[in-house]
Design a protein that fits this description.
The complex is a heterodimer of chains A (110) and B (349). Chain A is an all-alpha fold and 110 residues long. Chain A is built from five helices and no strands. In chain B, α3 links the parallel β1 and β2. The chains are: A mainly alpha (110), B alpha/beta (349).
């Protein structure tokens, strides 16, 4: 296989319903409800999704939610800040584990 | 993103030919269902007019700007403009009807030397007049007093401003256009345009600065109101969110950036039955600079005149025969039926 990720696959996401239609239907219905206007606006949810897409490093999701954020009226300044939020949490998550390192080191050391 | 360096015509670009544009639009692609089939699935085929509420006159392709997305392929090099004789035919046709709104567009319509005369005569007929203004034209030395003239005649100004951030507007409309647009908006505000109870309506047009659909109109209007007031002290009445149709220079952009297939798929995916039922061509007639009649300004730019059985030229205008005419449709029409719909007055749903 030349490429694991192929942009032509994105519109074929629905093929995942082929062997499990009931599960796919539930996923679609739940997914749609999650992103509907609620206590958070659809624009806010799209920015969160963009940030999470970077955190989970899913190129399909980054593609989708970049377009979706633009279509929800977010601009590149806002979208860039959202990616920084994801990056900061990822970076912080690594750094905070340094406390485990310190705990172990302290335990092992005189 | 670089700005276009001139009209397709001036660059002798293949897409300057409407035949070439239609070849691209009509090329069979499995994912791009024919628009007429989609209409048929919706029970709307053949699409027909429901009356004429708006009489849109395109007074020519001449413009002081060369915007990257322009569906007219307008620019300073385009000298095709409506003559006074053709305008007289428009006025004669209008006088025989009670069509309430006359929408004057271009190019930059103000650059037609007969613009003021036309506007004055339309006002004498008691019709509401809209000027589709690119804003920067109001600052040209040749247009001194134009803003005041529009105000004196209570003309509704519909002005293009794709975004409230300079870089994004200039990427589409040309270097320095944003600053000029703000200066022109301040001029219009100083005359009362956009201010409550002035009776002078100033509406803005947002259109996406790329290959994506516009955001919900109310959302982006709120953004523009807040940001233009905070940053520049500019006020306006309403904002129209308009989708870019895949023709002319926007089609060039889509093809050059390898976005065409994806954009068409997006428009088709977002097809909305309610938007299709409410497309503007159903209550509009569009007159070209040579007097030819079209269903809309987009069909005009693709050289797709009204269907064969309808009067073809303004000299033969007959409201009765046009009010229920069959609308000429094509793949580009997906631009007006996607999402919340798109028209010269913004979203339709």
């Amino acid at each position: 296989m030349a490429d694991y990720y192929n942009d032509e696959d994105l519109p074929r996401f629905g093929d995942m319903g082929k062997n499990a239609p009931e599960l796919w239907k539930k996923f679609e219905s739940w997914y749609g409800a999650v992103f509907a206007e609620g206590a958070l606006t659809a624009r806010e949810k799209s920015l969160i999704a963009l940030a999470v897409s970077h955190a989970v490093q899913c190129p399909y999701c980054i593609d989708s939610y970049t377009q979706d954020c633009l279509e929800k009226g977010s601009n590149l300044d806002q979208m860039t800040e959202a990616v920084h939020v994801a990056s900061a949490v990822r970076g912080g998550a690594s750094l905070v584990h340094g406390l485990q390192m310190r705990n172990v080191a302290e335990k092992l050391s005189m | 993103m670089a700005t276009a360096i001139g009209s397709l015509r001036s660059r002798q670009h293949e897409l300057a030919s409407t035949h070439a544009q239609l070849r691209v639009l009509n090329a069979p692609v499995s994912r791009h269902q024919p628009f007429d089939d989609k209409l048929a699935e919706s029970g709307l085929h053949p699409l027909t007019a429901t009356g004429i509420e708006t009489f849109q006159i395109n007074v020519g392709k001449l413009c002081n700007q060369t915007c990257r997305h322009c569906h007219v392929d307008a620019g300073p090099d385009r000298k095709e403009i409506m003559t006074r004789e053709t305008m007289e035919l428009c006025l004669e046709a209008l006088a025989r009807t009670d069509i309430p709104t006359v929408d004057i567009t271009g190019g930059a319509p103000e650059l037609n030397p007969h613009f003021r005369w036309l506007l004055t005569e339309v006002k004498k007929l008691g019709r509401h007049v809209i000027d589709r203004c690119n804003l920067s034209v109001l600052l040209l030395p040749s247009q001194r007093g134009m803003a005041e003239f529009l105000a004196e005649n209570q003309v509704e100004v519909v002005a293009s401003l794709p975004y409230f951030i300079a870089a994004r507007t200039d990427a589409q409309r040309g270097e320095g256009v944003f600053d000029k647009s703000i200066e022109a908006l301040r001029l219009l505000n100083s005359l009362g345009y956009g201010k409550p109870e002035s009776g002078l309506t100033l509406n803005l047009v947002y259109n996406p600065t790329g290959a994506f659909l516009p955001p919900p109109q109310a959302t982006v209007e709120a953004d523009f109101k807040r940001e233009l007031l905070d940053r520049y002290g500019v006020v306006f009445n309403s904002l129209y969110a308009i989708t870019n149709l895949p023709i002319s220079r926007f089609l060039e952009f889509l093809l050059e950036t390898n976005n065409y297939d994806r954009y068409m798929a997006r428009l088709i995916q977002a097809y909305n039955l309610r938007a299709a039922a409410g497309v503007m061509c159903r209550n509009t007639i569009s007159v070209g600079w040579q007097g030819t009649l079209y269903d809309c300004d987009f069909n005009q730019m693709l050289d797709l005149p009204v269907s064969g059985e309808s009067p073809a030229h303004i000299r033969d205008f007959a409201a009765g025969a046009l009010e229920s005419r069959r609308i000429v449709t094509g793949q580009h029409c997906y631009g007006c039926t996607a999402g919340a719909g798109s028209s010269c007055g913004g979203a339709t749903v």
